[in-house]
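User: quick one, fold this
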Amino acid sequence: EVYFKNLSKQKQKEVMEKNGNNHKLRVCVATCNRADYSKLAPIMFGIKAEPQFFELDVVVLGSHLIDDYGNTYRMIEQDDFDIHTRLHTIVRGEDEAAMVESVGLALVKLPDVLNRLKPDIMIVHGDRFDALALATSAALMNIRILHIEGGEVSGTIDDSIRHAITKLAHYHVCCTRSAEQHLIAMCEDHDRILLAGCPSYDKLLSAKNKDYMSIISMWLGEDVKTRDYIVALQHPVTTDIKHSIKMFELTLDALISFNKRTLVLFPNVDAGDKEMVRVMRKKGIEHHPNFRAVKHVPFDQFIQLVAHAGCMIGNSSCGVREVGAFGTPVINLGTRQTGRETGENVLHVRDADTQDKILHALQLQFGKQYPWGGGEGPQGARPEKLIGFFAASRPCKVHFETVSNCKMQFLEWQTQGCHKREGLSSHSLLSWSGWDSSGASPSLWQQEDTCGLCPKRAQKRWLDFNFSLLYFWDLGISTGGRVNPREGIVLHSTKLIQEWSSVDLRTPISDALHLPVWVDNDGNCAALAERKFGHGKGIENFVTLITGTGIGGGIVHQHELIHGSSFCAAELGHIVVSLDGPECLCGSQGCIEAYASGIALQREAKKLHDDDLLLVEGMSMKEEEIVSAAHLIQAAKLGNTKAESILRTAGTALGLGVVNILHTVNPSLVILSGVLANHYVNAVKDVINRQALSSVKTVDVVVSNLADPALLGAASLVLDYTTRRIY
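Assistant:
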């Protein structure tokens, strides 16, 4: 957290020095569905047309990105807007819990998006649960919020969400005088309220002069005439799902009986939407000759369809608002829009509990023509109004570090026999070999072409994986050596990784990728992985030992990772178990690593091979093949007594080290991981039974079930810091 705060201050200073007093207002527009984009698009066009004053960032989330709802993000691209970030935030489900989970998922993902964009102001529309997540995230991060269409009154949970967003927002653009009065009654500052009318109203009024017959023919058939079809758009009422589904069923029965060509649009993403779709299919609506069922109609075409319809029926806000601009008759069913200001073209059927009531309403309304221009608002919310409003209300805020938009990846490289790995986490894991394995040095981090991670390539080039787009939070690095995780510096290492001392891993990578970077020792990372994903989950005190090229480990005490006063805790491979043992790469003698590491076993295997004592019946080696620890293990399995003795000694040395650990920190669990863990686990248990005090002989010793705990630990670093970061 300290690192992140310091980084933020530094970036803020850089931005101020670069831009001086001519800093453009950076506006983030977040759109969640087809309905709110129709209101936000005119504002976005106005902002885009003033590049000397504004920078526009578009964030797309919610049902825009779901195929079942038409992948409506495409209409944003068709309008020539660059989508800066796509966030998959919808949790699919049948009940209210799915909406709550969707809000939670959005709250998890949004902070880093906002932290990366550093907007001066965020524009949020309406009363959807997605918008509540947007407003909550921005408000808590001290980002100014402009709320469109607040102050209105309607039924169901939408009312509560809309007013909650109003209290989170700093500026308000409302559509009617009544909405303005509601905002003032909610103690909002009058100077921060702009009465501007409906943002899409000007576009609605211009629809009358456009060609519409081709659009009607495309969606409803060539034999359909104007004023001789119905548009149906009905959503579930989340406060009474069962009743709203029953009402939808009655509506379809009434429309079938009314026997007019009908365009039925799929409902919004709300609890109960899937059940409504099932009702449609149960009644055969998609195959009925009088019906056309569609997921999405582009807004320009939709307004033509409702402008020339004989009637619109359902409970959408579009019916009680925008359709009034055309004088099209509307039947508003149920309580979803209770309290809305409506025109004379709307017939309310609050208690739509029988087919006959709905059918009677259709007979009353179908084919009528009301005066054009009966919609809400004095006029459209023209962009120039909002631009002036922005300019007069320019806020000050703290800038935070940006985060690049990339696909999640793991980068692996090899340095003189010891693997280093980076983990960039976004819930999923994949690996990619991206480094020259011939041997790397600290200067690697300054060689952008070698890394392939220079700013231009990191920010503008997408790595070509056949995986869905993932947004990732931070970057975690697991590395050998003694690490200062606060500064992201490898303080020093053994001869195992030459020149890997006083290496700042964090700064060059963070500067290149514009990502927060977290660094820790691979043994500590393995312990973090076990705590989050493995045997250590829920265990208060445990120790992890990595048995691989070297010997490392991590200690978790009272659920927290122990680093020590000089970051030297858990250097378990350098516990001395013999005063006159073999020389270790750390410069000492008799360390566990000098006996039980992969390098130690390779050393002993070479000695046997040089004395022609390694190979036994059933083994063979090519002349150019390098002798490794694997050959020693194979020889022991085939009955080579000298190889067996070496492995037994190595297992005993490791077991003695574990006994020392048990007597020092008294964990309740010891986890062995790495390629040699299975070969050592029984030997370690035997030594504990022979050498340990009786009070610790019952400790569990297990082999890790994680494929690569050090790598998973790098992801755990990211998850740990991301979920408890303080801004």
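User: anything notable?
Assistant: Confidence is low (pLDDT under 50) at residues 374-384, 393-472.
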